[in-house]
Specification:
The structure is a single chain. By secondary structure, this protein is mainly α. It folds into two domains: 119 residues, Tetratricopeptide repeat domain (Serine Threonine Protein Phosphatase 5, Tetratricopeptide repeat); 113 residues, Tetratricopeptide repeat domain (Serine Threonine Protein Phosphatase 5, Tetratricopeptide repeat). The longest helix is centred in the first third of the chain and has 23 residues. The N terminus and C terminus are likely disordered.
Length: 278
């Protein structure tokens, strides 16, 4: 009875708690450590990236878009130097853009650079390096010759996930839950194909968290708590106790996750399209 009361208390927290970044490339810049030049460049770069994403939405291999990716990265290096966490984020951004353009080998090589730089900056066991390593595992597997069927399957998982987000935003929680459960099945299939077990599949964890939020919205609190605990255990297995989604001493991490609403865990800027380019 006491456990049930406690569960209802933390499940009833407000939905406006601040969200931590789930992935290192989604972390906000540490503005207190940046120079005025660096802050100015981040402001100038934002509309450039918006243009890149619009161009690629119309044509993934758009030459102007890829040239803008390269030139903005050159400016990143000039402003931040080669050994800065903002550079790691920029390399990750490049990897995604080249992946969408169908240059899969280039994308995988760039993601390897992300891993190496995070390891250099924070150490091999830091959650940022481990996060980048997971993404490298996925990107490298999807980028292999003959990988289009697997890329299509992975893209279908994200298309379904995004459909769940849309339904949740519309208050259609039962329908959203069905989409998240479908996405979870697709991510499990991808994990099995690339030898990533469920307990190391961070994409599956994201989906379980959002399914839990549907359970919470439908007042099925026990299922919500159970699901998020599973997801957080995946985070711990992948990233360790120092990941910001797991390491918290105030409100339980489980409560924080289910209070935020879909899309907060491990989600950065929305992908323009979840096609087989993903």
């Amino acid at each position: 009875m006491i456990h049930r009361i406690c569960c209802l208390v933390f499940l009833g927290l407000t939905w406006s708690l601040p969200a931590f970044a789930g992935e290192p490339w989604d972390e906000p810049p540490r503005y207190s450590t940046l120079t005025d030049e660096q802050k100015k460049w981040l402001d100038e770069r934002a509309p450039i990236r918006t243009r890149i994403e619009r161009l690629q939405k119309a044509n993934w291999a758009n030459v102007e878009a890829l040239n803008l990716v390269r030139s903005s990265f050159d400016k990143d290096r000039k402003v931040f130097g080669d050994n800065h966490e903002e550079i790691a984020k920029s390399i990750r951004y490049m990897s995604g853009r080249f992946y969408y353009a169908g240059e899969f080998e280039t994308a995988a090589k760039l993601q390897l650079g992300v891993v190496e730089l995070y390891e250099q900056l924070f150490g091999n066991n830091n959650w940022r390096a481990r996060s980048a390593a997971f993404k490298l595992t996925v990107t490298a597997a999807l980028s292999k010759p003959g990988g289009k069927p697997l890329r299509t399957l992975y893209g279908s998982g994200w298309n379904t996930f995004d459909a769940g987000d849309k339904l949740f935003a519309e208050g259609k929680f039962t329908e959203a839950l069905a989409k998240y459960e479908q996405a979870a099945r697709l991510f499990r299939q991808v994990g099995a194909a690339i030898n990533v077990p469920d307990n190391k599949n961070i994409d599956l964890a994201r989906t379980i968290v959002n399914a839990a939020k549907c359970h919470q919205a439908l007042a099925v609190h026990d299922q919500a708590e159970k699901a998020v605990r599973v997801a957080l255990e995946i985070i711990k297995t992948n990233y360790g106790d120092d990941h910001p989604e797991y390491a918290t001493d105030s409100c339980p991490a489980v409560a924080q996750e289910i209070c935020r609403g879909p899309g907060s865990f491990g989600k950065g800027p929305r992908h323009a399209n979840r096609s087989d380019r993903r």
